[in-house]
Amino acid sequence: MNPIRLDLTMRLARSLNVIESRNLGIIEPFVASDEELEKVHTHEFVEAVHRGAENPRESIPEFGLGTEDNPLFAAIHESSARIAGGSIAAAREIIAGTAQHVVNFAGGLHHAAANKASGFCIYNDAALAIQELLDSGMQRVLYIDVDAHHGDGTERIFWDDPRVMTISLHESGISLFPGTGFANETGGPEAPGTAVNVAMPSRCSDAGWLRAFHAIVPQLTEQFAPEVIVSQHGCDAHAKDDLANLRLSLDAQRQNMLDIADLAKRFSQDRWIATGGGGYNVIDVVPIAWTHLMAIAGGQPIPLRTEIPEDYRTYVYETYGVDAPRTMSDDADLWWRSWEVGYDPSDPVDRTIMATRKEIFPLYGLDPWFD
């Protein structure tokens, strides 16, 4: 979660003139108040984060603070609350109708639960944005999470709320933190079928990932008919990321962004909030992926074979002593097999798709023969 991810993303976006040329403006993120944070987090948890900021040598394990993945530091509350404020501000822009698409690439901290920090995540900014939308009177918000890790915190916060559908494509919990997110985790008794989990096999590549996405997400989006889509674009599913075991390319991640933008245009009146998330290859992957995300949100995607400007590459080399990539692409082959051409029971991706469809689709009148 090194903050250089954010600096390099913005530098690359500016170098490619993404902000100015795509009708994008910048919203100043604010530090969310305790009252705002407590719309999804417990009062006791927020108090514990404050206490940890004041005494960063203290460990508060019952709230997930002072642990290996969530070490305490003096600015832990302020910095986390500012990221949260950015996503709340995004929701307010959508509510006011002053923006159609908003990106908070510092956000997407999807492991944070109502009463516990987890997996580098303190406050769950995506959940706070969703709650802001619900508080404005919206009745259906779709959350799509394509991080390598299961979006467990966001899912659990809305586990029993029928107004929110969470769809998470991630590496299976058999092989990756947080060990959850299986097909049979489908929502609470008041909201059956609103938690959708697609637990992909490790070493899954572009073709399998895109096949699974298109076999599940568009169909459920159409049936749920969301008023807004909130998405999480952790890019740690990339083949060069060391914290997961998937094999995606930048090209496939960009395609996922285009797919979600298209779903928003077709099914949610083109209202879309996009966040960042995981991503730990801070030179070769993260800045490129999230610059693509901003350009797509601005309605003018960056062509895949666009060369990365020399001023940016020079900055990276002089600052970090490594060579930045030369283009905005991994030059991958994005062919994928449509679900409609048939099911292969020997393919672990197909078994994953079938497991999720069997659990969820009959609840929405899809694949009724599973019922």
TrEMBL record:
Pathway note: Ketone degradation; acetoin degradation
Keywords, comma-separated and alphabetical: Acetoin catabolism
Family: Belongs to the histone deacetylase family.
Gene3D superfamilies referenced in this protein's UniProt entry, alphabetically: Histone deacetylase domain
Name of the featured protein: Acetoin utilization protein AcuC
Pfam families: Hist_deacetyl
Keyword Transcription (UniProt): no
Residues making up the signal peptide according to the UniProt record: none
InterPro entries: AcuC, HDACs, His_deacetylse_dom, His_deacetylse_dom_sf, Ureohydrolase_dom_sf
Location of the Histone deacetylase domain: 1-295
UniProt GO BP: acetoin catabolic process; epigenetic regulation of gene expression
Molecular function GO labels: histone deacetylase activity
